[in-house]
Amino acid sequence: MSNHPVSSRDPFRPESARDFSQRSRRLSKWLGLPYQRSQELLARIYGYSNFHELRVRLQRPGTPGPFDTSDSMLEPTVEGRAPDREFRIAHLIAQCKGIQERELTARDRAVASMGLFRQAALHRSIFNALTKRTKRDEAGDSINLNARESLRARRVVTAPPPSYPGLPAPVLDVACAEDEEVEWLWTATAAGRFVSGYRLVPRANDPKVGGQS
Question: For the CA atoms of 122, 142, 146, 128, what is the dihedral angle to 10 degrees?
Answer without folding.
Answer: 10
